[in-house]
Amino acid sequence: MSHAPTDPNQKLNIAVLTVSDTRTEENDTSGNYLVEALKADGHNLAAKAIVIDDKYLLRAQVSAWIADPEIQVILTTGGTGFAGRDSTPEALAPLFDKHIDGFGEIFRAVSYEEIGSSTIQSRALAGLANRTLIACLPGSTGACKTGWSKLLKEQLTASHKPCNFVGYLSK
C-alpha cells in the first residue's frame, strides 16, 4: 500500500497514555499538553488513560488500543528513563511490527539543543503495530512539547512533504 494519503487534510484519532505511579488527571501536565496539542492541530482525542509503570499493565492498555480499528496513533509520556520502575521501552517495543529508529535518534538530537547531555538518559522510541503509530516520549512536559513540535506534528500531518506517517495508519 502506498504511504500517500488520499486526503491531504486527513485528521487522526489519537490516544494518549501517561505512564506514572504519581500522576492524576489533575496534575498530568504532560498528558494534558499532548491532548491540547493534538486537538489544536485538528486531530481527535480517541482515548486517554493514566497507567502505573508496570510493563504488563502498559502492554495490556496499548494492546487494546492497537487492536481498536478507530485508533491510529498512540502517544505515551513517561517511563522512558532509567529509574527503577521506568519500563515503557521494555513493555512496548516487543509489540512493534516495525521499529522507527530515527524517532529516538532525532528526538535526542533536538533535545540536546534544549537540555544538553542530559538527553542521553532519554529512551524515547517509536514503532508501528497493526498500522498504529506508537510514539513513546519522556514524562516531562518540556519533552512532550519538543516531541510534538519537532517531530510528531509534521509527521502526523497528511500534507507534509516529502513524506509522513498518515498513509500507513489506515486499518
Automatic annotation (TrEMBL):
Gene3D superfamilies per record: MoaB/Mog-like domain
InterPro entries per record: MoaB, MoaB/Mog-like_dom_sf, MoaB/Mog_dom, MoaB_proteobac, MoCF_biosynth_CS
SUPFAM superfamilies: Molybdenum cofactor biosynthesis proteins
Pfam families attached to this UniProt entry: MoCF_biosynth
Protein biosynthesis listed as a keyword: no
Domain MoaB/Mog: 15-159
Cited PROSITE patterns: MOCF_BIOSYNTHESIS_1
Keyword field: Molybdenum cofactor biosynthesis
Pathway annotation: Cofactor biosynthesis; molybdopterin biosynthesis
Described purpose of this protein according to its UniProt entry: May be involved in the biosynthesis of molybdopterin.
Similarity field: Belongs to the MoaB/Mog family.
Protein name (Swiss-Prot/TrEMBL): Molybdenum cofactor biosynthesis protein B
